[in-house]
Design a protein that fits this description.
The chain is α/β, with parallel strands linked by helices and 431 residues long. The protein has twelve helices and 20 strands. The protein is globular. The structure holds ligand LLP. Ligand LLP binds next to helix 10 and helix 11.
Length: 431
């Protein structure tokens, strides 16, 4: 569900015509719909309401401080994975006790900053990390709070190998046997209070079944630990809820919640969720302008002014993003977004970027209405893991970001300039 809709053949974000917007702010540009962002957050909250969850939005999915603020103002906490993301959360005015801090490689400096800021929980990934956090907390005269990330050895076969995290073989968390020992060894530590369990299975997870399996395993573990007089008061079930890359493919929030809520209700556990893409994904599009049309053998290439440097997902995970012109004839108005569009007059096309790599592909063998040089294309469901993974490869400045609310559009990150590309190289220093 999102507010990117065609009206008389023209694509709008809420009440803003995207062709007009692109003419005024230029391309490439990420455009976000405030209403979509907020809607997803509220709907997720509603679906899980019986558990009164703390929703910690995963900043890594889309971290513009103006977007973080939208959610923080609605009571969201944040899932961060670095000192930089914590910095963003601070600037956006997030309540620090609603921060969960994950990641396998937290540095001493990052841990210190987070303890100083009195964050909610560290999601702890190993014994060595626990000991380090506890020691740093003691040296600061503070008490840290930890959740142990367990690895329940559960995954979804539809999740890309590069984004599966819940399998035993990944670098994340500790397995359940090791978790028992972990709590016996550290569960009564005074400097890092370990009273919570965290899991994140990967993303996206296209059905509730892996959550059910993993949560059941975790609940058994919690019972065992409680029987040993250890306190477990919180469970963080991570993120991974799907976004609508293709119409109708992703489960609704209700479908996830119907399976998950009954398992956790009445268990004396505070519940944390860490959604990223399901909130941000459909809330953003990337607009790119057609530069050239070219044929090569039997292939037709549409070359645009954005590519793998600004939306890495197709090149990195063969991910599908629906791409369509922003201005189409009535018969080409899409009623749904899918890899196979059943319409007359489509041309088989590869949509590629300007980067000097064969892998710089946004879409392969896609039926597309006829387009010409100068036309504008929208790359949909690009809100999550889009701008945050953008680079300056080939010395291309990163795109601007625009937030739309109703008929208002605001630049929330200006387009980078050539000066931005080289500014840090002007600050040389001998060491
Ligand atoms: N919690 C933890 C501990 C995570 O590692 C992640 C994502 C999330 C929450 C949020 O997952 P989400 O709800 O957004 O699926 N770049 C890849 C995705 C990497 C995900 C990393 N962890 C992509 O573009 O698909």
């Amino acid at each position: 569900m999102d507010w990117f809709q065609y009206r008389d053949g023209q694509l709008f974000c809420e009440d803003v015509n995207l062709d007009k917007l692109a003419s005024s702010v230029g391309t490439p540009v990420y455009v976000y719909s405030q209403r979509t962002f907020e809607h997803h957050f509220e709907e997720l909250n509603k679906a899980f309401a019986e558990l009164d969850p703390l929703i910690c939005y995963s900043i890594k999915s889309c971290g513009n401080i103006h977007l973080i603020k939208l959610l923080a103002d609605r009571g969201a906490g944040m899932d961060v994975v670095s000192g930089g993301e914590l910095h963003r959360a601070k600037l956006a005015g997030v309540a620090m006790n609603k921060i969960v801090y994950a990641g396998v490689g937290k540095t001493d400096a990052e841990i210190r900053e987070a303890i100083d800021a009195d964050i909610g929980y560290f999601n702890i990934e190993s014994e060595a990390e626990f000991e380090n956090i506890s020691a740093i907390a003691r040296s600061l005269g503070k008490t840290a709070h930890g959740t142990l990330r367990i690895n329940p050895d559960v995954s979804d076969p539809n999740t890309h190998a590069k984004t599966t995290t819940g399998k035993k073989e990944t670098k994340f968390g500790v397995d359940i046997d090791r978790a028992r020992k972990f709590f016996e060894t550290y569960g009564r530590d005074e400097h890092c209070r370990l009273t919570a369990i965290h899991l994140h299975l990967g993303s996206p997870i296209y059905s509730p079944a892996p959550y059910v399996l993993a949560i059941n395993k975790t609940l058994t573990l919690i019972e065992e630990l409680r029987a040993k007089d250890l306190t477990i008061d919180t469970i963080d079930i991570g993120g991974g809820f799907a976004a609508d890359y293709e119409s109708g493919r992703s489960p609704s929030y209700e479908t996830y919640a119907e399976a998950i809520v009954p398992l956790l209700k009445g268990k004396g556990l505070k519940v944390i969720l860490e959604p990223g893409r399901t909130i941000a994904g459909n809330a953003g599009v990337l607009l790119a302008r057609v530069q050239y049309i070219k044929t090569g053998g039997r292939k037709k290439f549409v070359i645009v002014d954005s590519g793998m440097h600004q939306l890495l997902r197709p090149a990195m995970y063969e991910a599908f993003h629906f791409i369509w012109p922003t201005n189409v004839a009535p018969q080409h108005e899409p009623s749904r977004r899918s890899e196979q569009m059943d319409m007359p007059g489509l041309e088989m096309t590869d949509i590629v970027g300007p980067i000097c790599e064969t892998g710089d592909i946004l879409a392969k063998e896609r039926g597309l209405p006829p387009v010409a040089r100068g036309d504008l294309l929208a790359i949909f469901t690009a809100g999550a893991y889009g701008m945050v993974m953008a680079s300056q490869y080939n010395a291309m400045p990163r795109p601007a970001e625009v937030l739309v609310s109703g008929s208002n559009a605001t630049i929330i990150r200006r387009r980078e300039t050539y000066e931005d590309l080289t500014a840090l190289e002007m600050e040389t220093a001998s060491v």
